[in-house]
Amino acid sequence: MQRLNLPGPKARSLVERDHSVVSPSYPRGYPFVMDYGSGTEVWDVDGNRFLDFAAGIAVVATGHSHPKVVEAIQEQAAKFIHISSDFYHEKWIQLSEKLNQIAPFSEDAAVFLTNSGTESVEAAIKLARYHTGRSQFIGFLGGFHGRTIGSITFTASKPIYHRGFFPLMNGVVHAPFPDPYRPLLQTRDGETYGQAVVRYIEDELFGRILPPEDVAGILVEPIQGEGGYIVPAEGFFQALRDLCDRYGILLIVDEVQSGMGRTGKWWAIEHFGVEPDIVTSAKGIASGMPLGAMISRKSVMSWTKGSHGNTYGGNPIACAASLATIDLIQSEYLHNAAEMGGYLMDVLEEIRMRHPSIGDIRGRGLMIGVDFVKDHGTRKPNAYVRERVERFGFEHGILLLGCGKSTIRLSPPLSVKKSEIDEGMMIFDHVIGLAERE
Ligand code: PLP
Question: How far apart are CA 311 and CA 83, in angstroms?
Fold first, then answer.
């Protein structure tokens, strides 16, 4: 298999210029310098072609520059680019109506549009406090919710996100996420691991440090993203919903990464048969235009005029891109994500047989994690193999991103074709072999 000579001369020169002026805080893993893209394919400035199995961190839901999304953006840009949230426009209303239709509540929804995932989470935190009149929250170890001071307080996937930034927001206590592959808690007879985690919240957190009547909300990713693409253990969400109902706590699901069709359903929470009270969204919602949403049950969005807002909320170009994206997901890609996700899982199970470093393969739809271990008995994370797979993948023409301590996330556009999965997984198989032999 051909190894590309990377970075090429143009990429090298641009990376050098970038390093002299761009903030050094970005966690860039390898020097891919984009020139253009189409669907799942991208090209760098030196003309090298790659398959994009990262999709801009699960953002370009409809693939790179889908013609219908591009057309919607161009048409809207020619009409008006901005008017501000002090006024009204039709695409904003249409998009909110659409989000109401697909929201995972039986009750009607109300929608607050934002510009990013972290802003959606901040809006959810504020609404939960406002609506309940309570101040405290529960988050989960391994969770990722963004990098502004409120959301970063919940973020608990790596210490670097907190180092140097204290003090954070007051009032967040973390519980273990119900990771069935590496459980932290003991399960009792007749109990699932998901139920054990909720019992820990009730007995240990509520019983010792956190009066439940002070808790406004529990913020959780239905499938953890940055923390390792972890699907929660059985019984978790039913028990958590029940706990929230008993204590009048809002269940806030962060669907910034897992939502908008990524898992083969509109929202990942739909896999677990419960309804949340608030949903946060961004990433795939507009195929790459900066847009997010905080969607709540209508009865929960009780804040009054002037209590929350933003300048760019409901940006018309972002709304146009989102409406085109939602149409495409609805007509084709929701189905494709479920079908291609199943196919990708089958291919990975076959690849697993050749590679002792693969410990776990998990996910739903096109949100799949491949976890590398030092040995199968201890399940100790193998960060080295993961890092080499990422790098060798790049050198052989596939863009991959890590997550958790030792996981590669596979999150191609929801439009990915079977032939692209075949080609991408042939490279993946090859580079895992290279990493294992090194
Ligand atoms: N929530 C989740 C689950 C995420 O995965 C992310 C980003 O990766 C965020 C929130 C933050 O989104 P943004 O980077 O758009 O602020």
Answer: 9
